[in-house]
Amino acid sequence: MAFNDDSFIREVNEELRSDQMKGVWRRFGRYIIVVAILIVVGTAGKVLYEYWDDNRSSGTGDQFLAAMKLADENKNDEALAALDKLEKEGHGAYPVLARMRAATVQVQKGDTAAAIAAFNEIGKDNAVPAAVRDAAKMRAGWLLIENGAYEQVSAAIEEMAVPGNAFRHSAREALGLAAYKAGNMAQARQWFQSIVDDTDSPRNVANRAHMMLDLITASGKAPAAQG
User: Fold this and answer.
1) What is the pTM of this model?
2) Structural domain span for residue 138
């Protein structure tokens, strides 16, 4: 089923207008996270592609593509074995790419704890290029929204929620959702408002931030600031 971000937001706003607040997050919260994480994956994928493109002369490229094909076919254990071999024996960019892909396969397998641990490990490895470390931290942060506490999400990604960082929009959204899920509406409002106030925020991210601000205001737990 294909989703349209704008029509989805209109549907949520219709629920708000009909005063059916109690079930809004229960009904839409997971979808909000899924839509947003697709953007993170896309951004991370661009970073990783550029890193791979700079190192594509390695002779292990075919092995990496074969491992990705196994993952795409949901042959997760075989894919993990192939990626583990690449991590240990590959050249150029491939060991790092294999680590990132292996963590994603762990998500596919349903072992979220292992995936978070793997992404966190990559994010702390100074031997890994900074852009890839940031991509790994973002993946861990988004997984922690549903599988951890706000403090864990903050520890993973708040350092990226600053002006000029390429991942700031996704980081702010993840922090806002984590605060909302934790019931900290004042903190959630601050993060979503920072998205709205940033004129460089992508339209779909800003639209979701506006929607979440409406939800927070409707909850009555963190009224809109008076300007």
Assistant:
1) 0.73
2) 62-147
